[in-house]
Amino acid sequence: EAIELQREILDSEATTETENVEMIMTTVFPILILPFFMLTIFLVQFIGGEVNDEKSTKSMEIIISNVSPKTHFFAKVISNNLFIIMQVILIVIYSAIGIFLRKMVGGDSIINGVAGEVGTAIKSLSTTVLSDKFIPILIFTIILMILTFIAYSLLAGILASMSTNAEDYQQVQVPIVVVLLLGYYLSIMAGMFKGATFIKILSFIPFISAILSPSLLVMGQIGLIEVIISVLLMIITIYLL
């Protein structure tokens, strides 16, 4: 005997667009920002480890005798950030290769089952909510992430210069990890604070704006003007550091 399922509307004011936004924010967005979260931690570890190695092996004296401290530090920041950006590009390439190989060996049912609903939601959003925002969201998100990488690099270098060895640096970098976790969890739970003023204020705070601002922009809680302000605040923070 066939089973009949009836859909009961629990929220009469909810719309398909709202449901799609919530689906993206609770499933897709945490997956997308997880590489940024992990790569930022790696970046902090790389720079701190290099600074402490140079101090412990006395190689810093040889380096500074050949180049200025500013040039050396800028070279360290640029090289590590280029490495992290290359890792992001490689993750995208490897993911595309993995999905392609999975489809080649007959994994269409798995991929289409998971990605089908997500793809439908994204397509629905792109024709409604994100129709005129997708390109600006992508551009400003990339700019914010690059600026945030640079800011964390400078902060890691400052903290590493204040520590005497690698063990001390592990303790000093705890606040950086706490700030990163705060931004990560706030971006995941942003949908729970619809219209809240404090979540909008937090989106302007440097170091977490790269994670929080794009999520609020997708949900329509802030506009492009607020994101531009976040970018300017990040630039000022980098200058101060």
Distance between the termini: 70 Å
Radius of gyration: 22 Å
- Total beta-strand segments: 0
Anisotropy-based shape: globular
Helix proportion of residues, in percent? over 70%
Fraction in beta strands: under 5%
| Average pLDDT figure | 78
Main beta sheet: strand number and arrangement?
none
Which regions have little confidence, pLDDT < 50, spanning 5+ residues? none
SSE order, one letter for each helix or strand? HHHHHHHHHH
Description of the molecule:
The chain is mainly alpha-helical and 241 residues long. The protein is built from ten helices and no strands. Helix 1 packs across helix 4, helix 1 packs antiparallel against helix 7 and helix 5 packs parallel to helix 10. The longest helix is centred in the first third of the chain and has 41 residues. The radius of gyration is 22 Å and the shape is globular. The model has no long low-confidence stretch (mean pLDDT 78).
Draw up the topology in text.
Blueprint: H1 16-56, H2 59-64, H3 69-104, H4 108-127, H5 134-162, H6 166-172, H7 174-188, H8 197-202, H9 209-219, H10 224-240
Helix pairs in contact: 1-3, 1-4, 1-5, 1-7, 1-9, 3-5, 5-9, 5-10, 7-9, 9-10
Brief synopsis:
The chain has 241 residues and is mainly α.
Keyword list:
about 240 residues; mainly alpha; 10 helices; about 0% strand; globular
